[in-house]
Amino acid sequence: MSTIPQRLENVKKLQARRWENEDHWDTLNDLLIKELDEILLIEPENTSALINIGAVYSDMGENEKALEYLKMALHLGSKDKNLFVNLAIVLVYMEKHQEEYLEYLEEAEDKTEDPLTFKAYFDPQSR
Asked: What is the dihedral of CA 37, 82, 23, 35, to 10 degrees?
């Protein structure tokens, strides 16, 4: 049986493959959500899983849901750079005030990325 870190590594690999397989985008997102939900059933306070599921929901355009998961990771004390970047991305997409997301970007500057998390996709031209 896989450990949680191994499962998170697999999630990260699968997430990267979404961009190479855009024909299977929805299927891969469903797989990612299912795996991350299972991890969170085992470890509800796993901030890496919370950050990743937030990124996936952001990529799917479900920013309210993404924000819920990201805020949970924040309240649990995560210092992961990807958390703060993802919070900023979601707030930009939600068209929040600039001060709100700039604060998270500033916070991210001196942080380190957790190798088990990833950033949400950001395209300033897209929405």
From this structure: -20
In whole angstroms, what is the distance from residue 91 CA to residue 82 CA? 14
Residue with tokens 């991350």: 36
The predicted model scores a pTM of 0.93
79-93 residues labelled b (16+ CB within 10 A) or e (exposed): ebbbbbbbbbbbbbb
pLDDT in tens, 42-71: 999 999 999 999 999 999 999 999 999 999
Q: Which residues contact 48 (CB under 8 A, 6 or more apart)?
A: 8, 80, 114, 116, 117
Assign 3-state DSSP to the chain and report helix, strand, coil percentages, each to 5.
Answer: 70, 0, 30
Q: How many CB atoms lie within 10 A of CB 96?
A: 14
Distance, CA of 14 to CA of 12 (rounded, Å) = 5
